[in-house]
Design goal:
This protein has eleven helices and 20 strands. The chain is an alpha+beta fold and 284 residues long. The chain has a domain of 95 residues: Double Stranded RNA Binding Domain (2-Layer Sandwich). It has a two-stranded antiparallel ribbon with strand order 1-2. Strands 3-4 form a two-stranded antiparallel ribbon. It has a two-stranded antiparallel ribbon with strand order 5-6. The longest helix has 12 residues. It is globular and about 70 Å long. The N and C termini lie far apart (53 Å). 7% of the residues are buried.
């Protein structure tokens, strides 16, 4: 009975999804919104978590015929419903607005203001490595994942452990043989939507980020950042059990298994275990 009474008590300020417990809301924000692109409607300033949802929402502002137009008396924008016009008017009248204390920008929703604050560049630095985050909660997640190796959920198929339940659910899809997400450019298929999205960027931004030293190109900024360490010889990821240092965090993760004895990958034929998935493929 209590579960029904408290249902929807904690609401996400970005997508307005509701949760019974504050911990569930926090996990939702960390896994769904933090560090992700959010898309803002330029008419009513409402925030959406994907371009497709924003496009669908914009239809509510587009008039279907000339007989149902409501005009803003301030900027002459047209709206098909009184509700859309009323929401837009908050931008001009300051009614219910949330004002940024660092610049003149104002927003009709608290969520819009919170996302705007990130643009002012406040960062929180990790005391264990060069990583910086725009929010304290992101930094806590980074420390738990990378440095403390905190895990709370275990895959019942391969025993790999995860810090967040959402990460476990995504991981389990990789054990499936289904490839439901198809690239429209080259017909390559993927098990996860995020893999497809990353792949599509390769078609769109093949040469977007270029190394000024060797002119090698990358589709993502983090790929260029990692590559630059081959020139600078920077190795920011340090083992806390020996003197080994690494340029990439995944290399440190693999190295740590030499200390812990962890061998999370196994052959499904003879059950021999390995420290890396590539070793399983070579073994077969």
């Amino acid at each position: 009975m209590l579960n029904h009474i408290n249902e929807g008590k904690f609401k996400c300020f970005v997508c307005e999804k509701s949760f019974r417990q504050k911990a569930y809301l926090k996990e939702h924000i960390e896994s769904t919104h933090e560090g992700k692109n959010n898309f803002e409607c330029q008419v009513c300033k409402k925030i959406f978590i994907s371009k497709s949802k924003l496009r669908w929402h914009k239809k509510s502002h587009a008039p279907k015929n000339e007989d149902r137009l409501y005009e803003c008396g301030h900027c002459k924008n047209l709206y098909k419903t009184k509700g859309s016009l009323r929401e837009h008017l908050k931008i001009h009248t300051n009614k219910g607005e949330f004002k940024c204390i660092l610049c003149p920008m104002t927003y009709p929703t608290k969520g819009g203001l919170k996302l705007h604050h990130l643009s002012h560049g406040q960062t929180f630095s990790c005391h264990l490595c060069p990583k910086t985050c725009t929010q304290k909660s992101n930094l806590r997640t980074h420390i738990n994942l990378v440095h403390k190796k905190t895990t709370r959920y275990e895959c019942n198929i391969c025993q790999k452990r995860f810090y967040m339940k959402t990460s476990l659910n995504v991981h389990k899809q990789r054990h499936s043989d289904e490839r439901l997400f198809n690239c429209q450019e080259c017909n390559k298929s993927f098990k996860l939507k995020c893999d497809l999205q990353a792949h599509v960027k390769l078609h769109v931004n093949q040469d977007k980020f270029k190394c000024q030293i060797c002119l090698k190109s990358f589709s993502r900024s983090d790929g260029l950042e990692i590559h630059m360490r081959t020139h600078t010889k920077e190795k920011p990821y340090k083992c806390d059990r020996c003197e080994a240092c690494f340029a990439q965090s995944n290399a440190l993760t693999i190295h740590m298994r030499t200390h812990t004895g962890e061998r999370p990958f196994s052959c499904d034929i003879c059950n021999k275990t390995f420290t890396q998935s590539t070793h399983v493929r070579t073994h077969k």
